[in-house]
Amino acid sequence: MAFRASVLTLYPEIFPGHLGFSLAGKAMQRGQWSLDAVQIRDFATDKHRTVDDTPAGGGAGMVLKPDVLARAIDSTCQNDTRPRLLMSPRGRPLTQQRVRELAAGDGVVIVCGRFEGVDQRVIEARGLEEVSVGDYVLSGGEPAALIVLDAIIRILPGVMGNDLSGLHESFEGGLLEHPHYTRPQEWEGREIPPILTSGNHGAIEKWRHEEAVRLTRERRPDLFEKAEPKKIG
Length: 233
Known about the structure:
GO terms for molecular function: tRNA (guanine(37)-N1)-methyltransferase activity. The chain is of the alpha/beta class.
């Protein structure tokens, strides 16, 4: 079954964006995954197609209305068990483990917030899982949704030219990825580490693992502390 992605947004023209190109775009053409961009504004009922209102209790900005968004979700998710994500800076950080869990399913529904945020009642009533792609604020959830979909689609079976490519990437083993090199052998006085051209595959794997451990310890001590001893040793 092909992976189905539905994105609820006020700017459906943003999609599929970069996902229409390269490996993801080719996989879409082959029918390995599909994307449906749903215009939230289509579910407003007044003549002005209003989707937002002022915050209860006062304050700056506007809040996405629960009734409009709920109708959009209900229309998209009839008899649908796909996870429902809400892109939000206050959500749980996206991890490679969660990406793999989502990729193992039959699809995902992603709600892109705008303005000051989304009415809390619809988050609770429709079981939206708040997800963050980093400790920063974007103008809307669309770029974050593209990041989530990019991370998922690239690891769907058959999307990458070599499925082994995903096994040695950053975060897959709890560590950052090792450095990469390619020809020419010497460039601007810098040479490829001799071990990588030695032909000794066991030594090469050992070097790559040691470099991954070193980089993780230096750059992401938070990950290093969480890594399993067998991953570090």
